[in-house]
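=== Structure Prediction Worksheet ===
Name of assembly: unnamed complex
Input type: mixed (protein and possibly other molecules)
Chain count: two
Listed entries:
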Amino acid sequence: MDAPEQSFLREKSLAVEDQELAVGTLEDSHAAKPETDAAIQLPNKSKPDKSAVEKDREDFREAVVKTLDRLLFVHKSFDIYRGVAGLYDFGPHGRTVELNVLSLWRKCFVDEEDMMEVACTALTPEAVFNASGHVKNFTDLMVKDEVDGAFHRADHLVKSYCENRKKDPTISAENAAELDKVIAHVEDLSAEELGGVWNHCSSHEESTFSSSSPLQLDVSNFLWSKCYLRPETAQGSFCNFKDYYNLNGRKLPFAVAQVGRVFRNEISPRQGLLRTREFTLAEIEHFVHPEHKSHSKFSDVAKLEFLMFPREEQEKPGQFAKRLCLGEAVAKVRHVNSETLGYFIGRVYLFLIRLGIDKERLRFRHHLANEMAHYATDCWDAEIECSYGWIECVGIADRSDYDLRAHSEKSGHALVAQEKLAEPIEVEKLAITPEMKELGPAFKGNQKNVVEALEANLESKGEVEFYVCTLGKNVTIKKNMVSISKKMDKVSTWDFTPVVIEPSFGIGRIMYCLFEHCYSTRPSKAGDEQLIVFRFSPLVAPIKCKIFPLVKNQQFEEATKFISKELKSNGIKQDVDITGTSIGKRYARSDEIGVPFAITVDSETSVTIRERDSKDQVRVSLKEAASVVTSMAEEKMTWQDVWASFPLHSSAAADE
Amino acid sequence: MDAPEQSFLREKSLAVEDQELAVGTLEDSHAAKPETDAAIQLPNKSKPDKSAVEKDREDFREAVVKTLDRLLFVHKSFDIYRGVAGLYDFGPHGRTVELNVLSLWRKCFVDEEDMMEVACTALTPEAVFNASGHVKNFTDLMVKDEVDGAFHRADHLVKSYCENRKKDPTISAENAAELDKVIAHVEDLSAEELGGVWNHCSSHEESTFSSSSPLQLDVSNFLWSKCYLRPETAQGSFCNFKDYYNLNGRKLPFAVAQVGRVFRNEISPRQGLLRTREFTLAEIEHFVHPEHKSHSKFSDVAKLEFLMFPREEQEKPGQFAKRLCLGEAVAKVRHVNSETLGYFIGRVYLFLIRLGIDKERLRFRHHLANEMAHYATDCWDAEIECSYGWIECVGIADRSDYDLRAHSEKSGHALVAQEKLAEPIEVEKLAITPEMKELGPAFKGNQKNVVEALEANLESKGEVEFYVCTLGKNVTIKKNMVSISKKMDKVSTWDFTPVVIEPSFGIGRIMYCLFEHCYSTRPSKAGDEQLIVFRFSPLVAPIKCKIFPLVKNQQFEEATKFISKELKSNGIKQDVDITGTSIGKRYARSDEIGVPFAITVDSETSVTIRERDSKDQVRVSLKEAASVVTSMAEEKMTWQDVWASFPLHSSAAADE
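=== Predicted Assembly ===
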């Protein structure tokens, strides 16, 4: 390979790396290639002739991120030590918004759908991720640039190499076709195969890249045993399936919900809240009979209409998501492969809209066949548009019986459900009768485990050695230790592996998009500056009500205390601002953290309540103030009701 | 050392290890040696002449743990893979109890005390724990037994060795005194000093122990940089102190609360929920002026009386905790060193009692001078008695200004508060005037950081090289780059480092003790078996209300749905049990998970509501049923009120 080509490869690989910073490694996680649009947008960034739209997007994003940082919604962790890329803390307002989002999530899913909420540990023994396929499938092959020490994904480099080779006018049609083939299939290769291809490519050049070596994700070594930090909560729910099934009275379907921190060893985390190394997932594992994927409450959501982007539309050039009726989409099986999957799409839509996500910037996109994770048979993403493009925020996947089957095989515990047969049937069964007087001395108290394992190895004859996972070692069974015979058995139930429908919510991503959708500015009264307003719904707002005594005196202080105490006892998050600054400045400070209601105490007997977005005010008696705000905060009353019941208060000076 | 002594050392070390399994390594964590009583009790365990009391305790514990496991309150994680010691999952009921406990915690502390709740990451860069002293102080020196591969704490082995040596009648009085000295001070030694002592001890014998080597706790190596998993949430709150202080309008005192998962590399985790490798902490960092530790609401708790165990009482033999008045204890400064610390003791007491902890089995024990963590100047533990003895569940420590000072020094960011001086004072100050035309070319855009760092290195003369943490490298400043002069400056504020009062709640431990305190049994009606009842308060109970249609028919089904829907919309966790089993069996199943209210639908117009503990029932109209249960579940109405308002329902057959 000649020098220009080599330098092109480096340049190109850096561009790929850049792109990855913004949208790249979600393939590492359970949902693959989510931000197609963003990925298409971002390489333009480095070009000097950036479009005006692009520039506006970036300016907007910068303004939002700066505000979130300044008001401590979200900020870099351990900043005094210069931070760590990909780690973010929630400050007081951000954490309260997170708790509000999770509280609505619990209400919409756990409570309304009678799910079991559980909490498994983040530390997970290696055996679990060996069985689940994470260790094999999410070990991206990485190569290191020995010049700058940066890591690059081998598949991206191979693609770049092939695309560049194709531009050589001297190569044969055959070679070009071969290169096309590599480009098309590079993402389907195993780490081993990819390593071979990469070694072939890199042998053609004087590369500064080291030879390929796999990079382990999510690894944490503890002294006591090899543990990983979970990249998803789901595996804990799968491992405990049998217990939950029993607790549910051995009935299907049922759902297990889990909210918790997960960890991903992102190579180049950027994009603030969108790609972090530690974040909160809220996941639902809905276990269902493989042949009964209908849903009893599907009719509740069947008539919903919203933006959907089916697979075949994506395959046509120039197509966009279209407003479709969910019921009709499910009816066409190729769009949504089961009612249960469709039901969750509907519920996810309702949840996100309720939070305050703009429904014109929310779409459900069907995964293309080659972008699904290794365990999924179908997947739709709830994508929300923000300044980064369309971002995957919720993945709704049919994980099939992949995980339960994998754990059954590797653990030796059958993670199955049972079903009564319409009529009992006779089956031939091998019966193993252990010779206890032989087994006892040979296995000293562990005979039971050995016999159980043996039953799963019926083909064995004569002396056989096999691994018993419950003992953690190999054992040898000799002929004299058991007697094997055939007998007929009447069977009235059959065991089957349930399938899993999994809606998985990236809470941090949803929050970031919500922040962008709620962010707005308006000119100050004097017109000399732009004031920030987060237009949060009362449900999401970190503080529901601010109370401002207009001036400092004992009567106003007492009135303020009275309202504050009542709101507290109603469970409404409130805050008193007694600083001496002007009421206008106090309103502005309240608006920028998105407080929907502001009470100004300007008399001993009555107060004003201000609506954040219109800045209009009503006058309400001191005694009623807290209950009016409480009703609106709990969405039992709207501003329309309040406008109709209380006199408008006009004060030219109010917003000064 | 002769052979018998050697074998004694091995035996003894195993006994120590055993003891550690039960109560040992909390010294690794922020609170030291908490379970003195338990530690005293447990060595007896291995003795064959166990007392009857001991035996009862163990039987009780076994019954509780078995029940928690069977009902999936708490169970071993990844059990299908034989689990990992020290990792436990919460099943549906356990997780709901945890959420209830955390919800009350937020109400009692975050909301009532206007705290800021934040969420920092669990992944923490090494620099943070270098500064905090965790890396240095919590690196227990471990030695490995090369025979069985087990790790033992070197300080325990040294102590055993010395105690055994003393029994040798031939040793001199001088030697014996020296051994006593080692025994007394072994816990105060640094890892390095201890290593020296251990090497000296072990050189006297043919040991199977390897030479000592430090064992790192909480370590997780990521590719990108060395990170630890946090063993407490506090360090994140400390690192962000300045931001929180600014957000609070630069006023003290204020408190930062954090609930999150923490990780500890326990050597030999046992004791179920009491010593785990991953668990939930709820911590409060209350930042206060070092000279103003009084508390404006102290009078709210001053009159409380409960069991306290001051330091001097513990030092007298045979003393126990005594019922003391909190206000009086605080007045005697040597008992509780500040009103703020005392205030939190009172609030912790009220919180635990409200949860349902038996107040006769709750005491506040003052730490002895030598058992406090390296950062603490005072500490009281809320200890709850359970079958393991008195267990530390909440530590209330005065961490002084240790942490903020340490992070200021190591990070170069002054984590201080400011106070106005009564009158401005003049101070002499060195003024550094940078020569920008020299600095610019030398540091290319980083001049500002360099000058800032230089100001912290005023003594420097001529050419000086120093480390600029914001650049992450050394820089060299030459004489011509700056000019230094002296000038007088008027100063009207001074900077000081706040001190931290920290109540730290081990949520899992509180829950385990609560489970033991609420566990009870009573004979079945037939008297042939003992039925389990968890006597949870409505606040804590995982399910508030069970609904039982007496028989299967459409009318009862509709009535059941009506009540279920109403309870749901009131936010009351309920569950319908439509299994065909007898009503008595359904009551028993409801009692054993601690459901306080059971509604039986035995007519179309009215239902019965059953009180779990007395098994008494009232008859209530169908329409009122949900609201009566809601009022009681929310503690707005008591059973006394209900007994007075509704007719008692007697049914001899009810509990069959």
